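This week, look over our next protein:
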Amino acid sequence: MKTINFIFGCHSHQPVGNFEHVFEMAYEQAYRPFMDVLERYPAVKMTQHFTGPLLDWFKAHAPEFLERLRAGVDSGQIEIMGGAYYEPLLCAIPERDAIAQIVMMAEFAEREFGQVPKGMWLAERVWEPHMPSTMRRAGIEYTALDDTHFLTAGLTADNLFGYYVTEDQGLSLKVFPILARLRYFVPFHPVRETIDYLRENATEDGLACAVLHDDGEKFGVWPETHHSVYEERWLEEFFQALTDNSEWIRCVTYTEFMAKAPALGRIYLPTASYHEMMEWALPPEMQRQLARLNERVSSDPSLAPLRASFIRGSFWRNFLVKYPEANNIQKKMLRVSAKLDQLRKKRDPRVREAERLLFEGQCNCAYWHGVFGGLYLNHLRTALYEKLIAAEKVMDEIVHRKDDWVAGFQVDFDADGRDEAILETAHQALYFQPVDGGTLFEWDFKDQPFNLINTLTRREEVYHDRCGRAVPR
């Protein structure tokens, strides 16, 4: 009999600074009802990843949910996947902070769920080739990435049913491809299409593995999904189908599959993310050209299958060029991290407080913009500045015994090759750009942590083209 292993995982996240009612709505509409259904189908094994902001919220507002997760772990139905606690992009923060945040998540998981995660969710699946060594130094053995990453490395769609080994500096990491076909099927297509797809790719040796790992918010928060997934019982039908076909669909966790099957080979992945993210990182005109190219290729049946392998956009770091406001927040974060690193040897409990504030200020969502990015959301940018300024305030109190100090710096703050000027006191910090006539571009009020000129320049976006077409002329 042909069989196939199936890894099903959910990644759930709410950003630092998001509104309280959004956390509550997501819990009631998606996270809690999902568990209600899962618990009725013990044959369905899955992997769950919740980010730090959600874990903090559960701890404060729904501790019973953590207990339910613990019960699933204890029964073997759930594997907990780790990550960097406050969901930063590893490419945007210092390695010391990345490792510390991954360890922070592992310690929470061990304390609350009795399980130290072997894998981690990579925020927005933003990958750079140096990441294996960072993850391994933090105790991580595997991660999951979009199949786009593997296709751009030269694999074909037939080579995506398993996992590979990659490395950096001799430190090896196992990497699983997340199948785009399954992400588009679930939960938007009839369940039978997913079952048929798995049947088509089952093998006699039973070593094929199909991975579906996607946003938990697809199961109740995305438009119309609460109705379809729960009221129309799509999720129950899906879990029932997996249970009914368990003779040939083997629901496994990542760790279980790695224990039973060897890697398909070694691979080196290029800088990548999901294809939309790479498009959003491009300037508007280049996005338009890429869209036109994709349309031409997609219309040719002989070329369409090659699109994911050879046509792609930019990579995440170019958001820091596209949006100077994002660059300013990121460079502010790097400056705060460097200050903290100088204080780590001090035996002062306030250092840990400053560290947590810094880590919260590294949450990725307000550092970029796309359909899902939050740079345009003022409350998310404000939250990052609040955390970073508050961390500086704590560190000021450690370094300075009195509050009557003044300090001035000349430094290339934004890393453009030209110095900026920073004037700081116990209560304020002012950032000036001499090359732009002495423009004040950041004004931090420390007593009530707030950047008084946290604004965003109005600029062209490709989706404005669609808005224009919708306006009657």
